[in-house]
Design goal:
358 residues; alpha+beta; Aminopeptidase; 2 domains; 16 strands; globular
């Protein structure tokens, strides 16, 4: 049958769109399942993440069988922040051997973005999405990172996308000398008058607002970043609170003023889908981590102290490995922080871009 491109509408069709991820990864020995409770409201326009954004989901079918999917996104908040006319292609998934279907799908997504004023499309970084892994296709990564098959790169390149930016992932094997280093870093910042406070101890009335303001300030010049709204941060904190994120994530205060924010989600590998007999190694049981420090307070060890606090809490819970998570290839201040904490590169990731030419 001929390949058709369609726009799913309604709860059933959008649910099928979300769950296609599980179909693509069904043969993996270890995988993260789709997240309908977070993704469906977003696609239906009923989430804080849709404010200021226009979403256009697309499916490629051959008869009744889905071959590939993508979400074309026009992000007004990103474009205002960077004064750009960029579109995003997110939630891309495809079965193997779908060269023709993928090209048709991504051509349609890019045509829609161009019709709405975009001059280019970025794939693999935007809203809640992270890049495509390019080397370690077997190890289960932290829960929010991509775990795409190797053939995705050929599909994307064949559909006109170019390599735009690289990132590296870091992990740390917990060792006694590193625990001592983290304790020292935390104590040094405390002696310098900086207070490290877990989010659970920040009053709920202030928590999301302070975290959002500090996060957006710390990342305002970070490549590809889109500012969060307070409603988005509140939703994420609420959604992941049962995992213990409020105990491992922190705010740093100096004289009562927020100067640093650390988002750390503990490992949640109990929610991963494993093939019979597959046992996760300790090195696959990883947290997610993100750091924001106000520009005026950088270079004072706040980043090290916040990370140290979280790592010590994770070690207290029994972690043998911890993650520093993704860093831009050229973000050398953050990469040096990773090395000071004892981290080593464990995987590489890539963001793609397709420029539109009339």
């Amino acid at each position: 049958m001929a390949i058709t491109i369609e726009t799913p509408q309604g709860t059933d069709a959008l649910t099928e769109f979300v769950l296609f991820q599980d179909a693509v990864y069904a043969e993996r020995s270890a995988r993260w399942p789709a997240l309908p409770p977070l993704q469906l409201p977003m696609l239906a326009g009923e989430s804080p993440f849709t404010a200021g954004r226009t979403l256009h989901p697309l499916l490629a079918r051959d008869g009744g069988r889905i071959l590939a999917r993508a979400l074309a996104l026009l992000d007004g908040r990103y474009n205002r922040h960077w004064n750009e006319r960029l579109g995003h292609v997110l939630m891309f998934e495809a079965r193997p051997g779908t060269r023709e279907a993928t090209r048709l799908l991504l051509d349609r997504a890019c045509a829609w973005l161009e019709e709405h004023g975009a001059e280019a499309a970025r794939a693999g970084f935007g809203m809640l999405e992270f890049p495509f892994v390019i080397d370690d296709y077997e190890s289960l990564p932290p829960s929010i990172l991509r775990h795409n098959p190797a053939y995705y790169h050929a599909l994307l390149k064949d559909a006109g996308f170019e390599s735009e930016h690289g990132m590296v992932d870091y992990k740390i094997q917990v060792r006694a000398e590193l625990v001592a280093r983290w304790e020292s870093a935390l104590e040094a910042v405390r002696r310098a008058g900086c207070e490290i406070v877990p989010l659970a101890e920040v009053p709920e009335a202030r928590r999301a607002a302070e975290f959002t303001e500090l996060w957006n300030d710390g990342f305002k010049a970070h490549w590809g970043y889109t500012p969060f709204s307070e409603a988005e941060i509140a939703l994420l904190l609420s959604a992941f609170a049962p995992t213990g994120v409020l105990d491992t994530s922190v705010m740093a205060y100096r004289a009562g003023r927020p100067v640093g924010a650390l988002w750390v989600g503990p490992e949640t590998t109990a929610g991963a889908v494993l093939a019979p007999g597959r046992v996760l190694a300790d090195a696959e049981k990883l947290n997610f981590l993100g750091i924001a420090v106000r520009e005026s307070d950088r270079g004072r060890g706040v980043n090290l102290a916040m990370s140290a606090y979280a790592y010590l809490e994770l070690v207290r819970r029994g972690a043998r490995y911890v993650s520093y998570t993704l860093v831009l290839d050229d973000n050398w201040p953050s990469r040096r922080t990773a090395e000071k904490l004892g981290a080593e590169v464990c995987a590489s990731y890539l963001v793609y871009r397709r420029n539109f030419r009339r």
